[in-house]
Design brief:
Length: 533
């Protein structure tokens, strides 16, 4: 069954199966970006690795993703979309099984990289397949359904990962992918249609091997720096300095190559369009905000508020469920040709308010106390995600949509890496500053300090009867309280700086321009978004 604009779309049970298969595959891929985070201590203990080294389990997956994302359109065209999707699904499932069976850290890191290669393709191709299952007037709903999956995956990860780690073994967080991949593979073979002429133009496609190599070197090295820079003390480390040089040479070489070849693997000429260039700034900032907020919040509530990993996941999950219905609504508005600029402005303002609101959190807040704060984060995500894609392609020609949107997704991913690196560094700086300020009050001349110290000491002495030991324990307890308060204030500062970051770019909205698009242009833009996500 061919699936083109002029052929009959699948209906009824066939369409439901396509929706179920593609959204599940996308959720599974995104879930694996966060599910590992809550199991790092258990994995490190099992494999005899340090916490610093175990971070490679996350880093390798992220590097593979960011390399594959801008190339997925080309690879799907070269091999055929269904073939590429099937191979990626099988690769993801096999890599997941081997991740769960890994006996050493570097074996696990290798298979996580392979898993990331397959996963990046799953995310990109799933939306294109889902899009083709719906007629033009219903494609806004398709985008909304996929958007729901995109938000649900990373949010479900911590809660599911926490539950598995608490009740089973760390390998099970990878093994659960295997039966899902098997079922999805069978459903893909049976129900996912091929496009007309899919994979039959291979002889006419020239592969820019040199460009691909430079992309891998440049973007891979940059992602490594952003992931590992804080733990390596940035440019005080020879390793980071060497990687920075490699990244610079790779990126400059890649840009030069792609601008001077007739068959670029990624079309960088779209940056000549002013609207796309300025939209990319907002995409970068949105990536900073989205990833930083999700990164800082779990660390804060587990370290300061005493949440378990499972409780942390639930505190993100229920607010996300609240805003999920907004995705198909906004998808319909975008499909109808609504200007994305008002939504982008609203998203920026909501995210800024979310940052300042998060900066008022207290150490005694429970899971439901964070509910309204996290609803704001979700609402800001809805208002920025799809509208920014539409704003990015507003000034591009239809044949440039694919390249523009694949670059938009890569920029968002890099924005997330920038955001996490910024958060790590800023928390460390603010922690040191707050600790220095607070420790100035820890003196015998401060009556409040003496009162607190004596109360803690008497509590320990009532249990042990040893005054010397009680004094030592009291000082140790005060030291822990000092650390906790310093980190707490640093996390609140980080939320506020994200808010300021959004407000600083808000004036640039006046540089964005959109024109009223024809139904054909709207359909072409939506199709490019699907095939380049």
């Amino acid at each position: 069954m061919e699936n083109t604009e002029n052929t009959k779309k699948p209906i009824g049970a066939a369409r439901f199966i396509i929706v179920l298969t593609t959204v599940t595959a996308a959720v599974m891929e995104l879930l694996d970006t966060t599910i590992v985070n809550v199991a790092l201590n258990q994995i490190a203990g099992s494999l005899g690795a340090t916490i610093e080294d175990i971070a490679w389990v996350i880093t390798s997956y992220a590097i593979a993703n960011v390399i594959v994302i801008p190339m997925t359109g080309f690879l799907a065209e070269y091999f055929g979309r269904k073939n590429y999707y099937l191979v990626s699904m099988i690769l993801f499932g096999i890599a997941s099984y081997l991740c769960g069976n890994s006996d050493s850290l570097w074996e696990l890191v290798f298979w996580r990289f392979i898993q990331g290669i397959g996963g990046g393709a799953l995310l990109s191709t799933s939306q294109a397949i889902l899009f083709d299952a719906f007629p033009g007037k219903e494609r806004g709903m398709a985008s909304g359904l996929f958007g729901m999956g995109i938000v649900l995956g990373p949010t479900l990860g911590p809660s599911l990962g926490g539950y598995i780690v608490d009740n089973y073994t760390w390998g099970d967080i990878f093994f659960i992918n295997v039966p899902i991949c098997i079922v999805a593979t069978l459903l893909t073979i049976l129900y996912i249609p091929r496009k007309e002429g899919e994979g039959k133009n291979k002889a006419n496609i020239k592969i820019d091997y040199f460009g691909i190599i430079l992309l891998i070197i440049g973007i891979g090295s940059l992602q490594y720096i952003l992931e590992k820079g804080e733990s390596k003390d940035w440019f005080q480390s020879r390793e980071i300095s060497v990687m920075a040089l490699i990244a610079a040479l790779g990126i400059v070489g890649f840009i030069s190559r792609e601008l001077n070849t007739d068959h670029p693997v990624v079309n960088l000429r779209v940056f000549a369009n002013r609207n796309f260039a300025f939209s990319s700034i907002f995409v970068l900032v949105s990536g900073v905000g989205l990833f930083t907020s999700v990164f800082v919040y779990p660390v804060m509530v587990q370290r300061i508020n005493g949440f378990t990993p499972y409780e942390t996941g639930l505190s993100l999950f229920f607010p996300t469920l609240t805003i999920l219905p907004l995705f198909p609504i906004l998808g319909k508005r975008m499909s109808a040709g609504a200007s994305p600029i008002p939504f982008v402005i609203a998203g920026i303002l909501i995210f800024a308010f979310f940052g300042f609101y998060s900066g008022t959190a207290t150490a005694d807040m429970g899971r439901w106390d964070f509910y309204p704060i996290q609803v704001l984060r979700g609402l800001g995500t809805v208002m920025l995600q799809l509208p920014l894609i539409n704003a990015s392609v507003a000034g591009l020609k239809p044949n440039e949509f694919g390249s523009g949107i694949s670059l938009t997704n890569m920029i968002r991913q890099l924005g997330g890496a920038f955001g996490i690196a910024l958060a790590n560094n800023y928390v460390a700086i603010q922690y040191a500053q707050h600790r220095s300020d607070l420790v100035a009050n820890y003196t015998p001349n401060n009556p409040l300090f003496l009162e607190k110290f004596n109360a803690i000491k008497m509590g320990f002495m009532s249990r042990s009867g040893d005054i010397a030991q009680a004094s030592t324990q009291a000082y140790r307890q005060l030291e822990l309280m000092l650390d906790r308060q310093s980190y707490y204030l640093a996390y609140l500062d980080t939320f506020r700086i994200v808010a300021v970051f959004f407000l600083c770019v808000l004036p640039l909205v006046v540089l964005l321009k959109t024109k009223k698009k024809s139904p054909e242009e709207i359909a072409a833009a939506a199709k490019a978004a699907a095939e380049s996500h």
